[in-house]
Amino acid sequence: MADSKEKLAADAKSLKDIAAGIARCRGCRLWERATQAVGGEGSPKSRIVFVGEQPGDQEDIAGKPFVGPAGRVLDEALEKAGVDRREVYVTNAVKHFSWEPRGKRRMHKTPAQQEIAACQDWLAAELRLIRPDLIVALGGTAVRALLGPGAKVLINRGKFLPSDWGAKVLVTVHPSSILRVPPEDRKEAFEAFVRDLSHIKRVS
């Protein structure tokens, strides 16, 4: 009998083990329509872990997190905030792309709570192995995965919150939200995001 998702995640000794387990995961039905699972990326010695929502269309194809438009916003914001992406670990709360068809395009669909819960073992395994000093929650799905289903972004934005993960959680928006604001407001939204990320410097 195959080991359960819970056992595979709990027994993982490396990020490579976790990636292999995620690739075989059938804990929810998102895998049926995804191109592939998308695990995290970065050093197991990273002191800071960024947790986003889920892979997007380009991440689903590439098999890497934050390589699409939202990833480019994140990269630019990290640079402005003085944070080197090469020194952090980036992952998502949900490891398969949740989407719905719109014409020929695959459009993002917010993961359901049971889909977030299905990936919780993998996220827990990543955080157990890395043991970061700080976790940055990018957007509502990440906030709910890390702090519970009742946690909200807007009332906690820019705050360091205690968690059960052995690290404080800094709450901010998902970089994709900046792409959805009207063009005339985008600069202000981006600058606010950079300010949030600038708080990371307080972690020494």
Task: Outline the fold blueprint.
Blueprint: H1 5-11, H2 15-24, E1 48-52, H3 57-62, H4 69-81, E2 89-92, E3 99-102, E4 105-108, H5 113-118, H6 120-130, E5 134-138, H7 140-147, E6 160-161, E7 168-172, H8 176-180, H9 183-198
Short description:
With 204 residues, the chain is of the alpha/beta class. The chain has helices spanning 5-11, 15-24, 57-62, 69-81, 113-118, 120-130, 140-147, 176-180, 183-198; strands at 48-52, 89-92, 99-102, 105-108, 134-138, 160-161, 168-172.
- Architecture per CATH nomenclature, i.e. the level-2 architecture: 3-Layer(aba) Sandwich
CATH class: Alpha Beta
Shape: globular
Given as residue ranges, the uncertain stretches (5+ residues, pLDDT < 50) are none
Number of helices: 9
Count of domains: 1
Architecture overview:
Helices cover 40% and strands 14% of the residues. The protein is globular and about 50 Å long. It has 204 residues and is an alpha/beta fold. It has a 5-stranded mixed beta sheet, sandwiched between helices. The chain has a two-stranded antiparallel sheet with strand order 3-4. The chain has one domain: Uracil-DNA glycosylase-like domain (Uracil-DNA Glycosylase, subunit E, 3-Layer(aba) Sandwich).
